[in-house]
Amino acid sequence: MKNLVFAVSLLAATLCVPTAAHADRLAYPSADAASFLIDYPASWTMTPAEEEGDYVELAGKDGAMLFFRTIEGSEEALLAAIQDSKDYLAQDYSNVVLSKAKDVEQHGLKGFLATGTGTNEDGDDVNFLMAWFPLPDGTIGELWYAAFADDAKGAKEAAAILNSFRAP
User: Fold this and answer.
1) Is the N or C terminus of the chain more exposed, i.e. has fewer CB atoms within 10 Å?
2) pTM, two decimal places
3) What is the sign of the dihedral through the CA atoms of 71, 100, 129 and 133?
4) Residue range 102-126, pLDDT digits in tens
5) Which domains does the chain have, with CATH numbers?
6) Residue 27, class by beta-carbon neighbours within 10 Å (0-12 exposed, 13-18 middle, 19+ buried)?
């Protein structure tokens, strides 16, 4: 229950935290043809996607992770991405509890998200957030957050990064 409260608190923080000054900006899939933009602090490590449709990874110092990508803007692609997400959680975590999807709006983009908790293979409690936003270019932006349940600093930084997600 404590982890679920934390996940809901992260959701609230994601939607309410003002964007702070950030050192770096990510334009996905490229600066010339961006589907979405993210601002992130220089203290986070970015691993670029190898090709369009792959996840870009942002990693905080203490293990908080964010993943971003776009998928085809069809209902079939969205349903497949949601199922893939559920399958991934079921395969890599135990005790997974997911919230019902909730409609959200961020910087004029309407989408939905779900939060949750689980336990990794080392026995650590982990908080999750998954979100999908239809984008003006016809694709769907997919966002993932995962962090140890006791990583309050990483959760706060991740909330600011997630709050910066927007269309160009």
Assistant:
1) N
2) 0.84
3) positive
4) 999 999 999 999 999 999 999 999 9
5) 2-163 (3.40.1000.10)
6) middle
> What is the distance between the alpha carbons of residues 62 and 167, in angstroms, rounded to a whole number?
28
Residues 63, 149: Cα–Cα separation, whole Å: 11
- Structural contact between residues 139 and 110, judged by C-beta atoms closer than 8 angstroms: no
Q: What is the 3-state secondary structure (H, E, C) of 22-37?
A: CCEEEEECCCCCCCEE
pLDDT digits (tens, 9 = 90+) for 77-111: 999 999 999 999 999 999 999 999 999 999 999 99
Spatial neighbors of 57 by CB under 8 A, at least 6 apart, are 46, 47, 65, 66, 67
CA angle, residues 12, 144, 1, in degrees to nearest 5: 50
Q: What would the two tokens of residue 82 be?
A: 């949601």
